[in-house]
Design goal:
The complex is a heterotetramer.
Chain A: E1 4-17, E2 20-33, E3 37-41, H1 48-56, E4 64-73, E5 76-77, H2 83-89, E6 94-97, H3 101-104, H4 111-122, H5 127-140, H6 157-169, E7 175-179, H7 187-204, E8 207-212, H8 215-221, E9 224-229, E10 232-238, H9 239-244, H10 249-257, E11 305-307, E12 313-315, H11 317-330
Parallel strand pairs in A: 3-8, 3-9, 6-7, 7-8
Antiparallel strand pairs in A: 1-2, 1-4, 4-5, 9-10, 10-12, 11-12
Chain B: H1 15-25, H2 27-44, H3 46-49, H4 81-117, H5 119-133, H6 137-148, H7 152-162, H8 164-179, H9 182-189, H10 194-230, H11 242-249, H12 258-285
Helix pairs in contact in B: 1-12, 2-4, 2-12, 4-5, 4-7, 4-8, 4-10, 4-12, 5-8, 6-7, 7-10, 8-10, 9-10, 10-11, 10-12, 11-12
Chain D: E1 3-16, E2 19-32, E3 36-40, H1 47-54, E4 62-67, E5 70-71, H2 77-86, E6 87-90, H3 104-114, H4 120-134, H5 150-162, E7 168-172, H6 180-197, E8 200-205, H7 208-214, E9 217-222, E10 225-231, H8 232-237, H9 242-250, H10 290-294, E11 300-303, E12 306-308
Parallel strand pairs in D: 3-8, 3-9, 6-7, 7-8
Antiparallel strand pairs in D: 1-2, 1-4, 4-5, 9-10, 10-12, 11-12
Helix pairs in contact in D: 3-4, 3-5, 4-5, 5-6
Amino acid sequence: MDEKILEIENLAVEYRTDDGVVKAVNGLDLTLEKGGTLGLVGETGAGKTTTALSIMRLLPDPQGVITSGSIKFAGQDILSLSKGELRKMRGQHISMVFQDPMTSLNPILTVGDQIAEAIRLHEKISRAEAAVRAQSMLERVGIPPNRYSEYPHQFSGGMKQRVVIAIALACNPQLLIADEPTTALDVTIQAQVLALMNKLKNDFETSMIIITHDLGVVAEMCDRVAILYCGEIVEYGSLEDIFDHPEHPYTKGLFSSIPDLDTRASRLTPIPGLAPDPSRLPKGCKFANRCSMKRPECVKTDPPVVNLDDLHRVKCLLAQGKDAEQHATLG
Amino acid sequence: MQSKQTDRSRKNYSLWLSAWKRLKKSRMAMFGLALFAIICLGAIFADVIAPYPYDFQNLDETFQFPNANHWFGTDSVGRDIFSRILYGGRVSLQIGLVSVLISVTLGGSLGAIAGFYGGKTDNLIMRTLDILLAIPAILLAITIVTALGPGMFNLMLAIGVSSVPSFARIVRASILSVKEQEFVEAARLSGCNDAHIIFSHLVPNIMAPIIVQITLSMALAILSASSLSFIGLGIQPPIPEWGAMLSAGRAYIRNYSHIVLFPGLAIMATILSLNLLGDGLRDALDPRLKN
Amino acid sequence: MFRYISRRIIMMIPVLLGVVFVIFTILYFSPGDPARTILGVTATEQEVQMLSEELGLNDPYGVQLFRYLKDLLRGDMGRSYKNNKSVSAEILQRFPTTLLLATLSILFAAVIAIVAGIISAIKQYSVFDNIVTGFSLLGISIPNFWLGLMLIILVSLHWRLLPASGFYGPRYWILPLITNGVGYMAGIMRITRSSMLEVIRQDYIRTARAKGQREIVVILKHALRNAIIPIITLIGLQFGRALGGAVLIETVFAIPGLGKYLVDSISAKDIPVIQGGVLFLAFLFGVVNLCVDILYGFFDPRISSQYRRKKEKAVKMHAKQAN
Amino acid sequence: MLPLVETKGLKKHFRVPDGWLHAVDGIDISIGEGMTLGIVGESGCGKSTLGRLLLQLLEPTDGVIRFQQKDVSSPNKAQLKELRKDMQMIFQDPYSSLNPRMTVAEIISEPMRRYHLYKGAALRDRVTTLMNTVGLEQRLENSYPHELDGGRRQRIGIARALALEPKFIVCDEPVSALDVSIQAQILNLMMDLQEEYGLTYMFITHDLSVVKHISDDIAVMYLGQLVEQSPADRLFEEPRHPYSKALLSAIPRPKIRVERQRIILKEEISSPINPTPGCRFAPRCIYAVDECRTSNQELVEVDSGHFVACHRVNEI
């Protein structure tokens, strides 16, 4: 098996606010092989961004608390790192691209300085050398290096996101986490940015986690997919597993909610209802109230994770039956 | 994060009611409210509470330190300071209220017109108000009082006018931010005319910042009134006014500091109560409801 | 940047003219006969009439306003009714004291308040934060002229540590400085704290942390510079208050500055002095506002570039309209 | 079939510091009764301005708008009020499009109150009916919008738009702020309503899969002008304008093992301030020749119902 760059086990994260405790991530297991690209898919409030911020250890302080679990990056436990070690890790080994390019750049510093800052934090080079490096980074993300001394407000949204990517890749990190990197962009610009990310990923040999709600982006960029619902991974597998044989009713529901460009269906099949309030999650399966295949036992017990094969796993009682059947027929 | 889900809230609170519920949770704001209520009651019922008339001079009991008969002592002509502070509250609160009313009405309507109609009207109004803003408020008030002569109403007018620009700015900014919202377009499509839009859509949505501003401005107005009285431009003797009492007591601070202690504390308590209340209201009425 | 500054200076001119117009008009319509004020109750009606004619007080309002403006441009603010001294000369002699006191109080307040406000914001809800919040609430509620009296009673009269009045050297500055400073400090602390709290939540702060930047640099380089605009705005306003508040503080501490000069002439209805004093202080305030605007441009590239690159703005407007 | 809504040479120019912004610059559309016209384009292309022009929320700089064959380009107040009964809008933002100080029932009943259509109990019944129609639980009638989720808020907006029984509804990105599972619920609702009440929609969006799903015809907009208009399926099978081609190829599709030729456009959309003659898309177009930069091509019918505005449509 390939070397694992990231291993998350049983991660649980809460936000403690005046209005109560919101359980954003509830027992999440995830691994990423070196050089792989993982798509983290889910809707608003599913815990995608929280997971990413936990890996970076950038959860809002003091509200966001990791209550259990472990996160290992290249074999090292991130949760036990000191502040100084975390700083060394951020930007140098793990980088992050945030959702909204409009607000991710500091408006009062030139884009060049913001890239050079990232380089100088992790490498002992002079200001002038850092500037040269920053210019070459700009060039690599498709921005003329002579725009080094311009300010973010002088760039369009797509260009800003390129700058953010340049900052993230400036120190050649082993892992890049991209949180909805193209959601705020128009579709033609999205295509440019996705193409750029694919190219840079190959050039830099970076492992990547892409957080998105768009299955189209996943299909294009990822080789592994994790579907999140209410802070849990309800289904995980290779791209083919998820797109060819989705097992979890939620995954299937997601696919049938999207209009298909190639066929003309008169109606979509949406998932009925709403996701439960994250501050008062139900005891059993968290998807049960919206599930068309719900059985009485679904609301009573938290479904176990079922391994369908080496990679493909599903957190659903129905799959358990299937698993047993499979074993029965095999046996 | 998700809003508090509907499934949970069987009871539906109006926004004002939920703001009050939030305000009640803030101890500081409730303390401010209580303090302010006490000051108001003391002023309103001064006739009943005050042990002496405010202008009753007892030349046998001058410069008394606080004691059982005169809780806050007496001044240079033997007047009871506690009684004078109660009556002084009337003056200060009246000035605060009326001058804020003046600035709310004038500034509010100018700001609303500027914000709602925009363009040249906006430019004309705001540039004119910029001129008033360029003069430090207390100097503008001094100039107005100099021209009109001292007296309670002139003082109210001077203070009211000098805070017109800041009210206009706040109302204008709130109108502008609400006007951009899509529900205003929706209202137009629903057949609302300008008056409907202003009164049933814009006004309810800008009330929150205005209420906060009224509270804070009242504190400022009370401070300005006592400042002007302190330099002899405000309320004239024998009417008890806190600032004037301070000014009159200055001559005796070497030996009888209580004469200036209590009026100052009264001003401070009033302003503090309004500031606490204003801060609490700002948090409670914050339109950025948790989403 | 140069275009931005010159544009600001040009924009100041109509405002200052407006200020002269407003102040002149208000005082023009004040009751009382200046000639009578000058000559006193003993003078005959004829003498009063002659003086009025001589001073041009019988001319129409427009003529008088124009004459005042013309004189003002030459630096002439007329003569005091009380002692016939040149108002401009008196003002020029006194304003350095007032300006020095205002500047020192603001600097003293700003330095302490900004540091305290930052710490308070990054340690939100800590004991320190509670102390700062409490102090600033009291500070904005305390009338400074009363605080001055209390300090005089305690420090000067009771403990005999510092002089109670006058303005003859640093020892005399301390009490007025504290008196003035507490209120300003409170205001600046509040705005620093809230502005920092606002900025710290922004995405670009997270970006800076995600680079691996040290927290202290994140706060000072990335957060503070973005939070500074409202702080500077308030400091500018406070400066205006300090200039206006000179009438109070100089009365309390018997400081021979512009404020005291103004207050002394109010009771005498010495219109040229009041007019000149108010106008001069408003002018100083205008200069302060200009500096504030220039600082905006210095701290925020978006503001100064509005004048360099109108096109950007147009594009932004377009995007806004299209949305 | 006669068109319900029609525009001819519709223009809207805004004054900006640098000159005139041609947000909508000569648009001809026509929507048949009971049909859905989808308007697609990227941010800044003027699609929202177009919708607001049709609803008279903005005054056109030039051009004609016809509703039921009547010229309604510059109505007086009375005509406008009459007209608005027939034309409504569903907004993009389920947060800012509902007045936070009004309850659900107040929001939905407002149009009927302004037009004095129902009173007292009849008004309450009508609100209940509308809430049922859009799938809102009746117990929510006294709730405030901030207590509800995005999907329910959007249903309130739809109920409000239906209150006056309009014939024509402009839908301005009605689902783009919603999660996909909720998005599908709302799209289904809108299609059901169209069928039930014979509504005519103009559906403005940047989401191409949504627009294809709901529209009969699609018009592609670029910097204030239409570059292509065609029946929905036809456009997706064979886009003819270079911009449409690039746009369609750029959609990330939730399918694997599908080989597609992706056209990556260079640069980004500019801004139509003081535009020069010539095709607006020319600076980004790989097929552009000198002619494209100097003269603008009108929409030309290349196939039945399929219009394209491109000089080189037959060569590429």
